[in-house]
Amino acid sequence: MRKNEMKKMIGLISSALVVSVIVFGCGKNENKAAKTAVEQPGVQPVAERQQRNYTKAPDFTLKDLNGKNVSLSDYAGKLVFVNFWATWCPPCRAEIPGFIRMYDKYKDQGLEIIGISTDRNGIDVVKRFVDANKVNYPIVMYNVEVIQKYGGITGIPTTFVVNRKGEVVNKFVGFPGEPAFENEIQKWLYKKAS
């Protein structure tokens, strides 16, 4: 390799490492801080005050795998997990069986999950994956506008927890494990929208 090619290669590798640290590091710190705040009794009054400051979840309308429109507003009054994912993403694939179980267990009590596929290889790839994995919750295809509405997605999977009032109350970047999602269900599913 020539010297210029070597410099370019080192630059590309360095850039990729920086982006990886930002994407994966930010998600872990964000969730750890949120968990710590909930577990410390002295912080609880602050957390309760912050509940009034949650932001409204951006509404969207996207096509499902059968071409039908699906909007977040269709699920008003329910607890909704808005999950950005892709078929080629190992952590995304790892969290799907848990979402299937949780949806089966809690859908009649008001849990909804909307999987927003960020796949660029087309709807057929997503359909085959959904069928093969027996995904039982709505899957829609993304567009850039929705990603922008949600502040840009820095890594997948990314899951927004939207309470019954339509407010974003938590965000997970990466797969935090099924117990973290169960905790969100227990915390928010049985609170009324009032």
Query: In percent, how much strand structure appears in the residues?
Result: 15-25%
CATH topology of the largest domain: the name is Glutaredoxin
Protein structure class: alpha/beta
Compute the number of strand runs.
Answer: 8
Estimate percent helicity. Answer: 40-55%
Set out the fold topology.
Blueprint lengths: L2 H37 L4 H7 L4 E2 L4 E3 L5 E3 L7 E7 L4 H17 L4 E7 L5 H10 L6 E3 L2 H6 L8 E5 L4 E7 L4 H11 L6
Parallel strand pairs: 4-5, 5-6
Antiparallel strand pairs: 1-8, 2-3, 4-7, 7-8
Notes on the structure:
The protein folds into two domains: about 1-55; about 55-190, Glutaredoxin (3-Layer(aba) Sandwich). The protein starts with a helix and ends in a 6-residue tail after the last helix. With about 190 residues, the chain is of the alpha/beta class. The chain has a six-stranded mixed β-sheet. The chain has helices spanning about 5-40, 45-50, 90-105, 125-130, 145-150, 180-190; strands at about 55, 60-65, 70, 80-85, 110-115, 140, 160, 165-175. Residues about 10-50 have low confidence and may be disordered. The protein contains six helices and eight strands.
